[in-house]
Design brief:
heterodimer, A: 504 residues, mainly alpha, Formate dehydrogenase/DMSO reductase fold, Cytochrome Bc1 Complex, Chain D, domain 2, 3 domains, two-stranded parallel sheet, 22 helices, B: 2 domains, 0% strand, binds protoporphyrin IX containing FE
Chain lengths: 504, 373
């Protein structure tokens, strides 16, 4: 509420995710590739292998061109985009970790200098100094990864920092080490994958030698991933593990994609680089690279997803509202603390309701596009929306609680109801189908029938008894809104629940 | 302050004393500015010299500049990152808002930067004689001009919260620039002209290293002319900038604030001294001594200008948002750790550069090529 909201028509998180995945892909290569280059160089000197040395030299130029430009600038791009999309979170991170970032910057500075020297002064330096510069590069690059990892994992699991506000408590948080292990393994794998790219320039025996050598890096990196992944998973907070265990279906999909992509990269590399390097061609390398990108991409996506509703676990919600400000906002209303509203606060103002949507929901929902709110409130009338809003955090998504006073709540309810002007009509001809429809509108945000998410199974009861229950839902559980539909709708719903037909 | 839409200070206290954070901001910004001047000025001079195709010296100068531009870009960015870090911690509640208001141009900086940077690599790696290099080099220079313009927009917008709401109402998507700002154009031209001037000094220095050759002499004269000419023009742009500042803020450097006024006078004096030495250089007198004085005074003038810019910026801050009101809880042990690492980092960089310097029997590539020619 402190800052204006950058209204792009889609959640800005998508922009961050795009920039971040590209950056992470190249920057992990930038870490692993450093070690790969020096070790390749050393191997070439040991075996007196001129061809291998020439390969390393050419690969170093490719490496510099990709990591110094694209890698470094997309890193700046993440900064720019988090500042634009989540200024409150960025401010929190900067205030907590400015010295951590300053240290990271020292390593970054060393890294850039070392990369320039390593790639472009190869012929001027003697062997020992050149390799020393390569090692300096690698150590600095890995150290900057180790620092940024502390800040990124802090957002998911701030750990004891929440009580102590101590730098080190936030930095060495519960997911710090497993995440660092995964990133390091990924860096090794990516070094090999990009090594395979440069292999395509080579002809004859050297091509096979380099393919085997690079393939080994890919395999070594990937085989450690399952172990580290499990370690990481076990350090997740409970709510995040529940998402993975079926709380949100996208999480399951992302896990499966990450595993499948890593396995694909492993198998293809083992076959086409280690076993039959002659089979290696552009298409195969592209497949390996894409699998690597998919592994990393779904990993990053998962980390962001399971962190919801938070940007900084337990401290700041994804919509920029601090957990400790909720009470205050409910008392005074959103408008008291928001500097950017155009509409005057009024319970019956659609314009004001839309502003509340922008402030509290647009961080994750668009209206009609990505994670469209219109589709998710289909059939909601104003009354139901009003009753449902205080329970957002219980719905299937991973949402922060609604923040606001009565006026805010009523205005947002009005806005949500306006998204689907025509309410769904209930045809009395088919009671059960109509009842299913009512269930979708009134209950499915929080329940399934005999499914994975907060399952209901009322098949043992008669419709009449269910109908009586429906009249007293909040008494069954105070976390539940009352049923707000018509009497006909309520009876249809009872009939549907009596059948015990499953929903998903 | 209720009427200004400025975010309240972050509830997390500043993790270090304000003076330290400010010093680091000014230091890293100064370094960023110098690197940026060389990159921006260098890209423009390269375009200029590429157009003078008849002169072998001009072509050689364009080649030498092109070869250095990727490195200058690398340091512009690296040092800019540090400045961004400190400016965010000190001025975040201004900068985040202004960045969002010009969100689209601001985010596009990243794309422009990548394109320009690859453009410079392309120009460095390809033959100067080709038309491709001329076109790509010119486009990349244009991109840098655009980036600098966007920066000046943001740096001025962050200081004028009174203008924010209107911009936000106009385009919530961030399709804005700060074109209503009176100081925008003079400030931009002032920065740009300074970039050309400083790059002129860079040309002087590369001439000094080969001053016994005709080419070296030529470089010294050319560079000195760029520096002196651009700086004289910049007195005009500077005056324009001064006049376009709000009277209250202009007064700061014209007597209202003693320190700022003295620094401003000193900066003018130093820049004048630099121009005089540049003219002596151009006349061919005592190149090493004059070049040293010229570079030293010019850099000192830039450094003072950076400090004055800071006074001006803080002059804009509304009364409720002065630094004295921020809560500070220093992370002392971590600050110490940072400085230890910083020293180690500098030593490491020194080690690497000394290895490169020691392994340079044939002189730098420019003079090597020169000898062949
Ligand atoms: C080659 C590309 C760049 C150019 C041409 C450029 C140009 C400029 C200019 C002209 C200013 C002064 C604006 C003013 O005071 O009105 C400036 C300030 C600044 N630049 Fe850059 N810049 C570039 C890249 C970057 C990058 C990549 C970063 C950081 C990631 C950066 C960070 C900064 C910061 C933080 C300031 C303001 C510092 C302060 O206000 O104290 N710059 N830049």
């Amino acid at each position: 509420m402190n800052y204006p909201i950058w209204q792009l028509g889609f959640p800005g998180g998508l922009l961050i995710a795009t920039v971040a995945v590209l950056h992470v892909f190249v920057s992990h290569f930038a870490v692993g590739g450093g070690a790969y280059l020096v070790l390749t160089e050393r191997k070439a000197y040991r075996n007196n292998d001129r061809e291998l040395l020439n390969y390393a030299r050419a690969h170093a130029k490719f490496f510099a061109l990709l990591t110094l430009v694209f890698g470094a600038v997309t890193g700046v791009g993440i900064w720019f985009s988090i500042g634009l999309v989540s200024p409150d979170a960025t401010s929190t991170l900067i205030h907590t970790f400015v010295w951590g970032w300053a240290m990271e910057w020292v390593f970054f500075f060393v890294e850039i200098t070392a990369a320039l020297v390593y790639a472009y002064q190869w012929d001027r330096l003697d062997r020992a100094s050149h390799q020393a510069v390569g090692w300096i590069y690698f150590v600095a690059a890995w150290a900057s990864l180790a620092i940024i990892n502390g800040i990124v994992t802090f957002m998911l699991t701030p750990g004891r920092w929440l009580e102590t506000r101590n730098f080190w408590d936030g930095f060495f948080n519960p997911t710090y080490f497993p995440s660092l292990a995964i990133r390091t393994a990924m860096a090794v794998a990516l070094a090999g994958m990009f090594g395979l790219v440069s292999t395509l320039q080579l002809r004859g025996g050297i091509r096979e030698r380099v393919a085997r050598w690079s393939g080994a890096w890919v395999v070594v990196g990937i085989v450690f991933l399952p172990l580290f992944g499990l370690w990481y998973y076990r350090a997740f907070p409970g709510f995040a593990r529940r998402y993975l265990a079926g709380g949100i279906s996208a999480a399951g999909t992302a896990v499966n994609l990450a595993i499948a992509a890593a396995a694909l990269a492993l198998v293809v590399t083992a076959l086409a680089a280690l076993w039959k390097p002659r089979a290696l061609n552009g298409a195969v390398v592209a497949l390996v690279l894409l699998s690597g990108l998919a592994t990393l991409g779904s990993g990053e996506y998962l980390r962001e997803l399971v962190r919801k509703p938070w940007v900084i676990g337990g401290y700041l919600y994804a919509n920029g509202i601090r957990a400790d400000a909720l009470k205050q906002i409910s008392a005074t209303g959103v408008s008291a603390d928001s500097r950017w509203l155009a509409a005057k606060p009024a319970a019956d103002s659609l314009a004001y309701g839309r502003e509340i949507f922008v402030l509290e929901c647009s961080a994750c929902h668009s209206v009609g596009g990505y994670r469209a709110l219109r589709a998710r409130v289909r059939g909601w009338d104003e009354h139901f929306a009003y009753q449902a809003l205080p329970h957002l955090q219980l719905m299937r998504g991973t949402m922060p609680p609604f923040a606001g006073n009565e006026t805010d709540r009523a205005a947002l309810a009005k806005y949500l109801a306006s998204l689907n002007p025509a309410t769904v009509s209930i045809s009395p001809a088919n009671q059960v189908a109509a009842g299913r429809e009512v269930f979708e509108i009134h209950c499915a945000a929080c329940h399934t029938v005999r499914g994975a998410f907060r399952p209901l199974n009322l098949a043992a009861m008669k419709a009449g008894a269910i109908d009586r229950l429906l009249k007293i839902l909040p008494a069954l559980n105070p976390n539940m809104p009352p049923f707000t539909g018509s009497e006909a709708e309520r009876r249809a719903l009872a009939r549907f629940l009596e059948t015990g037909q499953p929903t998903s | 302050m209720q009427h200004l839409p400025i975010a309240s200070p972050d509830p997390i206290p500043l993790p270090g004393p304000v003076w330290l954070l400010r010093t680091l901001l000014l230091l890293t910004f100064f370094l960023h500015l110098v690197a940026m001047d060389l990159a921006l000025g260098g890209s423009l001079l390269a375009v200029f010299y590429r157009l003078r195709r008849k002169s072998e010296f001009a072509r050689q100068t364009a080649r030498d500049l092109a070869a250095k531009l990727p490195v200058m870009m690398a340091y512009t960015i690296t040092l800019g990152v540090a400045a961004l870090l400190f400016v965010q911690v000190l001025y975040g509640n201004f900068l985040y808002a202004s960045s969002i208001l010009i969100g689209i141009p601001w985010a596009s900086v990243i794309v422009l930067l990548i394109l320009a940077y690859y453009g410079f690599y392309y120009a460095a790696m390809h033959d100067e004689a080709g038309a491709g290099v001329r076109v790509v080099g010119a486009l990349a220079a244009l991109l840098l001009l655009a980036i600098a313009f966007i920066y000046v927009n943001n740096m001025t917008l962050m200081l004028t919260p009174g203008r924010w709401i209107a911009l936000y109402r106009r385009h919530v998507s961030g399709w804005n620039l700060n074109l209503g700002e009176r100081a925008l154009i003079p400030r931009y031209l002032h920065m740009l002209t300074a970039a050309i001037a400083l790059c002129g000094l860079f040309v002087v220095l590369s001439g000094i290293r080969q001053r016994t050759t005709q080419f070296g002499q030529w470089l010294i004269r050319q560079g000195a002319a760029w520096f002196a000419g651009a700086t004289v023009v910049n007195y005009g742009f500077g005056l324009w900038l001064l006049l376009s500042l709000p009277a209250r803020i202009r007064a700061l450097v014209l007597g209202a604030n003693g320190v700022a006024t003295v620094l401003f006078g000193a900066a003018l004096f130093l820049s004048l001294a630099a121009v005089v030495h540049a003219l002596m250089l151009r006349a061919g007198r005592r190149p090493v001594a004059n070049a040293s004085v010229c570079v030293a005074t010019a850099l000192a003038a830039v450094a003072l200008m950076v400090v004055i810019r800071d006074y001006v910026r803080n002059g804009y801050l509304p009364p409720g948002y002065q630094f004295g009101q921020l809560r500070v809880v220093s992370q002392t042990s971590i600050i110490v750790l940072f400085f230890v690492l910083f020293a180690a980092g500098l030593a490491t960089v020194y080690y690497m550069l000394s290895k490169v310097a020691a392994a340079r029997p044939a002189g730098d590539p420019a003079s090597a090529r020169q000898q062949k020619a």
